[in-house]
Design goal:
Strand content: under 5%
Helix content: over 70%
Shape: globular
Number of helices: 9
Order of helices and strands: HEHHEEHHHHHH
Number of strands: 3
Distance between the termini: 27 Å
Oligomer: single chain
Structural class: mainly alpha
Length: 230
């Protein structure tokens, strides 16, 4: 964890530290299974223990850390069970959001999704996979917020953040065919929103996320098998 932390005010220290550490995990600078020591974090951030403890508690609640009694907090390890749980929940909830969003989609929502999709295509062409993930997240953001279901939006914010972490750790830069396929699927999703086909877009979003689950599970399995051979 070499990235420098620069406090920004008036945002609270807890929020800033939480965001900083979340990004360290999601972008792989804090490794799976790595221990986070409060004293070391205090020195890095130059703050008291209280905001560090609160940030670690939030990260644990968000599923990025695990607290092992008498040992401390560690970056959560990704396994097939955690992948399956995350993507199954997302498949059900994001597809629901897509159906609910369909009658609410405005012309500027469609236009925004068109722009984001073009950025996704460009990022893929330039092999900028982290940028691709960002735009992918933005694409789904549009219809999730268009669902106008506040509880659903809050739940998905947490679940989707974990999904980004899974993808960056296990998929980034490794299987380009997967990224090409998802670009095509997002074009189809957008076309269904344009047609106001609520049930069609619900089904396609669910299939898209379940396919991502299979890709992530297969990649983890093959990575584990390669590890055993070494």
């Amino acid at each position: 964890m070499d990235k420098e932390f620069i406090p920004q005010y008036p945002v609270s220290l807890v929020d800033q530290i939480t965001e900083f550490l979340s990004n360290e995990v999601i972008e792989g600078r804090l490794k799976s299974g790595q221990r986070l020591v409060e004293n070391g974090l205090q020195r890095k951030f130059g703050v008291s223990r209280a905001p560090i403890r609160e940030s670690l508690r939030i990260l644990e609640n968000n599923g990025l850390l695990v607290n092992i009694p008498r040992k401390g907090r560690f970056v959560r390890k990704i396994d097939e069970k955690s992948i399956e749980e995350n993507f199954l929940i997302r498949a059900s909830l994001e597809s629901l959001a897509a159906r609910l969003a369909t009658p609410n989609m405005r012309p500027d929502d469609i236009e925004g999704m068109e722009v984001v999709l073009s950025h996704m295509t460009q990022a893929l062409r330039e092999k900028e996979f982290k940028s691709y993930f960002k735009y992918h997240y933005d694409f789904h953001d549009v219809f999730i917020y268009a669902s106008k279901m506040d509880t659903l939006i809050r739940i998905l914010e947490n679940v989707r953040r974990h999904a980004i972490w899974i993808r960056i750790v296990y998929l980034s830069g490794s299987i380009q065919k997967y990224f090409k396929d998802t670009t095509d699927v997002h074009r189809e999703i957008l076309d269904l929103f344009i047609k106001k086909d609520s049930h069609g877009v619900e089904a396609l979003v669910k299939r898209h996320i379940l396919a991502a689950m299979e890709e992530a599970s297969q990649f983890l399995k093959s990575s584990n098998e390669e590890g055993l051979k070494r």
